[in-house]
């Protein structure tokens, strides 16, 4: 996998984590909502696991965010965007 794709995957994973933390959701909560183990969910946030489009949309729905917003490069900007809504 090329470096650009890896960095984008890490960026999406970081954005997922930032929004989850902003919402005060635990990894256990998201894992339960997704029907997976906490360990499997942790691997998503660490970008150890490739996320399918279906899983990305599910995560976005749980986090109450547009899935496209998870591709923004700056997690602080993403959190700021969703604190003003």
Automatic annotation (TrEMBL):
InterPro entries the UniProt entry points to: Cro/C1-type_HTH, Lambda_DNA-bd_dom_sf
What CDD domains does the annotation carry? Answer: HTH_XRE (cd00093)
Q: Is Isomerase tagged as a keyword?
A: no
Keyword Cell membrane recorded? no
Which stretches are annotated as coiled coil? none
Note one Pfam family from the annotation: HTH_3
Keywords noted in UniProt: DNA-binding
Domain HTH cro/C1-type intervals: 16-70
List where the protein spans the membrane: none
What name is this protein filed under? Transcriptional regulator with XRE-family HTH domain
Identify the species of origin.
Answer: Dyadobacter arcticus
């Amino acid at each position: 996998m090329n470096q650009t794709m890896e960095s984008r995957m890490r960026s999406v994973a970081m954005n997922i984590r930032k929004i989850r933390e902003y919402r005060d959701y635990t990894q256990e909560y998201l894992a339960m909502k997704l029907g997976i183990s906490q360990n499997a969910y942790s691997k998503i946030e660490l970008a150890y696991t490739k996320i399918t489009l279906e899983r990305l949309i599910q995560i976005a729905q749980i986090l109450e965010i547009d899935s496209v917003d998870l591709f923004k490069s700056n997690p602080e900007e993403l959190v700021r965007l969703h604190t003003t809504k």
